[in-house]
Specification:
There is one protein chain. It contains twelve helices and 39 strands. The strands form nine sheets. The protein has a 16-stranded antiparallel β-sheet, with no helix packed on it. The chain has six domains: 3-85, membrane protein fhac (Ubiquitin-like (UB roll), Roll); 88-162, membrane protein fhac (Ubiquitin-like (UB roll), Roll); 167-255, Ubiquitin-like (UB roll), CATH 3.10.20; 261-337, membrane protein fhac (Ubiquitin-like (UB roll), Roll); 343-413, membrane protein fhac (Ubiquitin-like (UB roll), Roll); 417-749, Beta Barrel (Porin). It has 753 residues and is α+β, with helices and mostly antiparallel strands. The radius of gyration is 35 Å and the shape is globular.
Length: 753
């Protein structure tokens, strides 16, 4: 930093006794003359004051725009500031780390952007951030050199990165660990020993995460606290690295102490609206049980939420411990400090470049003037996540004063519109080609529309649909669709053309009701030239239909759906429970009732085991009740994605005749159960791996639901690609019969996992 104040020797003594006659600011680009005058604090007509001029120079430097400032005087008593502004960063480049398309975002996280003014301290800070990020990936001895290339009125910065070598943890030792299994201790660490097949996705590679190393001792100590060892201490880890092989050994020194049990639990500082006994009945820390700090944290969170639901947004719950070292017990008193009731001052939304503010606000259950509620806050975040518009949703509390707060709703939008084209091959379908143009959030309005077609050896499908989930931002929805399809089943071909309309209403935050009507014209043709292609069975008696069957179907359906999940594509918590009752018979040729039910439960274990494992259970049931006529194409089948994987779509159904020349009869009852476990495969690529087991039953009456039972298992690659969600399924049928049509590979695009 240079600060120069020059006075002509011959005139200095005279000028110091004169007033300033004029002030000039030369070389300013980012500041106006008026702003410069305000910053300097010096006015024409004031006497010369060297200390005041020196202070003005310091104030100009604090603005961050200048690399040099020179102040001089003129012969007639004028004051002249000469500014040299910092160079603009015109180019940012990185060699040896990160791909070119990722570098802009990486530089932003480092605190640098093109167009910024060059500041050596800011560049050095960015270098430290990059070094820390690379070390977090397990690289040792990272070296970063920065080339500053001067250009005309700008500079180009080139970061040359040598990532060094990765450190692999070969051995971890817990010295002094006697009462707990060392595997349980290691499971909580960020730095673990390399697994036997550590290179395989889902297993630990053993790569050291140096930025987490200093915290691992606390993680191990927390395991002791979860098992009642309140006096346990775990030292900081000592890592010894072999400079030749980059293999490392890590040692922790542990003093376990004694195990404590809970003597009693109390709650103090209750406010009106809360009942002590009711609250205690929900606590996880129980008297007589081994103390567990993880349960204590859940109790703190629960109590804080109950208080916050009454408007005390910044309530605190402090646990006080009274340890009895003689009988190894601990008494816990939760003290509630509610503070003041808080109302919402404003809801500030950011990150929505496409989605309109009003679309977001209609899913936020707190508005300016409302009393704060923790449950409302959580429900708002989950509701936004279920829309499928956003990759990430955060709602932060910003305190305005003791009685009011702002909600900062920060969203990161995901791709909702896509042009998709794909293909594949199946042993049953042959070559498949599909394409679609769709958007779940047209122009940020929340309206969902799409047009698509699918072509294969056995199928041709076209569809056009539109759905507005909140008409005029109300609780009502409206949708419509038209479609045309052709499908070759095992023993018959079907052609359909139809349309549907639906209206719905959001009954509660999680409960949605709908009423729909659909009409279709259908043509079914015997593909095997057999007189029994459309045979139906009625209590053992065959009823033969004509070789070709043409019919119209008119259906009204009433449905209810409950959804408390936290995300549209990959939910980690919540339930889905739905059902519908339909009747075909008011118009058309078909007369039957159909009832459907579905249930889904999702549970993420990351908070418990520090690993993003998601467990899923899904059940789907459907029953048809004949009221005069049900054509075979309207009956029930199983197989394929969304059913029993490992079998060809629509290939499982009751049949008659020999296995080599079967006549499909169709089912009227169906029940499918699915259990899945999903694990992260690549966070950067947004890929997950799901292991699944499907069990399905289908029959022609309530007493013969298990007339046919099929099972399948396998693994599915869940990829949230730039084109939308893609699901690649590799499945195996369990004990298939010789006549079963199995499928080892299927895929879908655009569906939730």
């Amino acid at each position: 930093m240079k600060k120069l104040f020059t006075l002509s020797i011959g005139l200095s003594s005279i000028l110091l006794s004169q007033n300033i006659t004029s002030i000039q600011y030369n070389g300013l680009l980012h500041l106006s003359q008026d702003v410069a005058t305000e910053i300097s604090g010096i006015e024409v007509g004031e006497p010369f004051d060297i200390n005041k001029i020196d202070a003005s120079i310091k104030e100009f430097y604090r603005q961050g725009y200048f690399s040099d400032i020179v102040v001089s005087t003129t012969a007639n008593g004028g004051l002249v500031y000469e500014f040299k502004e910092k160079s603009v960063i015109s180019k940012l480049e990185m060699n040896g780390y990160s791909s070119s398309d990722e570098q802009e975002e990486l530089f932003i996280t480092m605190g640098l952007r093109k167009g910024d003014l060059y500041d050596s301290r800011k560049v050095e800070s960015a270098k430290k951030k990059l070094t820390k990020q690379i070390e977090a990936e397990g690289y040792y001895d990272t070296v970063i050199e920065i080339d500053v290339e001067p250009k005309e009125e700008s500079v180009a910065l080139v970061f040359n990165v040598n990532k060094g070598e990765k450190i692999y943890i070969e051995k971890i030792e817990f010295a002094g660990a006697e009462n707990l299994d060392t595997d349980d201790l290691e499971a909580t660490l960020a730095n673990k020993e390399e697994d036997f097949i550590g290179w395989f996705p889902g297993f630990n590679s053993g790569v050291a995460r140096l930025d987490d190393l200093s915290l691992d001792g606390k993680r191990a100590q927390d395991v002791y606290m979860q098992n009642g060892y309140m006096d346990a201490t775990v030292s900081d880890p000592l890592m010894r690295v072999d400079a030749g092989s980059y293999k490392a050994e890590v040692t922790y020194n542990i003093s376990e102490g004694e195990q404590y049990r809970v003597a009693n639990v109390g709650i103090h500082g209750l406010i009106d609206g809360l009942d002590s006994e009711e609250l205690k009945s929900e606590l996880k820390v129980l008297e007589g049980k081994v103390f567990n700090v993880a349960k204590l944290r859940k109790d703190q969170s629960y109590l804080q939420e109950q208080v916050a639901n009454l408007g005390y947004a910044f309530a605190r719950v402090n646990p006080n411990f009274k340890k009895n070292s003689q009988d190894k017990t601990v008494s816990i008193d939760y003290t509630i400090i509610p503070g003041d009731k808080v109302v919402i001052n404003d809801v500030i939304i950011s990150g929505n470049h496409t989605t309109k503010d009003r679309v977001i606000r209609r899913d936020i259950y707190l508005a300016p003037g409302d009393q704060f509620s923790s449950t409302d806050l959580k429900d708002s975040k989950n509701a936004l996540g279920r829309r499928g518009y956003f990759e990430k949703v955060d709602i932060e509390k910003e305190r305005v004063d003791a009685h009011s707060m702002n909600l900062l709703v920060k969203v990161k939008e995901t791709a909702t519109g896509s042009i998709q084209a794909g293909g594949g091959y199946g042993s049953y379908q042959g070559a498949m080609v599909s394409a679609s143009l769709s958007d779940r959030n047209i122009m940020g309005s929340g309206i969902n529309a799409g047009i698509s077609f699918d072509l294969s050896k056995i199928a041709v499908n076209y569809s056009l649909s539109i759905q507005n989930p909140r008409i005029w931002d109300s609780d009502y929805s409206f949708g419509a669709s038209v479609y045309q399809s052709e499908f070759e089943y095992t023993t018959y071909d079907q052609k359909s053309i139809g349309a549907s309309v639906n209206i719905g209403k959001q009954l509660t935050r999680n409960l949605f009701g709908s009423l729909s009507y659909s009409f279709s014209e259908n043509e079914a043709t015997d593909a095997n030239n057999s007189n029994s292609a459309f045979a139906e069975v009625d209590y053992g008696q065959f009823i033969f239909e004509p070789k070709d069957l043409n019919y119209a179907k008119s259906t009204f359906t009433l449905g209810l759906n409950y959804d408390s999940t936290d995300d549209f594509y990959v939910p980690r918590e919540g339930f889905i429970l739905g059902g519908s009752l339909g009747y075909s018979g008011i118009g058309g040729d078909q007369k039957f009732f159909d009832a459907t039910g579905k249930f889904g439960a999702y549970y993420g274990l990351e908070d418990i085991i520090d690993y993003d494992l998601i467990l899923r259970y899904k059940a789907r049931a459907k029953v048809l009740k004949d009221e005069g006529n049900i054509a075979i194409p309207e009956k029930l089948f199983m197989g394929g994605i969304g059913s029993v994987r490992g079998f060809e779509p629509y290939s499982i159904t009751p049949f008659s005749g020999p296995t080599t020349d079967r006549t499909l009869l169709g089912g009227t009852q169906r029940l499918i159960n699915t259990v899945e476990a999903s694990i992260p495969l690549s966070k950067a690529a947004k890929m997950r791996l799901a292991f699944f087991y499907d069990h399905g039953m289908i029959g022609r009456s309530a007493t013969s639901l298990d007339e046919i039972t099929k099972e399948g298992y396998g693994v599915a690659l869940e990829w949230f690609s730039p084109m939308g969600p893609i699901n690649l399924v590799f499945a195996k049928a369990v004990d298939p019969e010789s006549y079963d049509q199995t499928a080892s590979f299927e895929f879908t695009m655009g569906q939730k996992f």
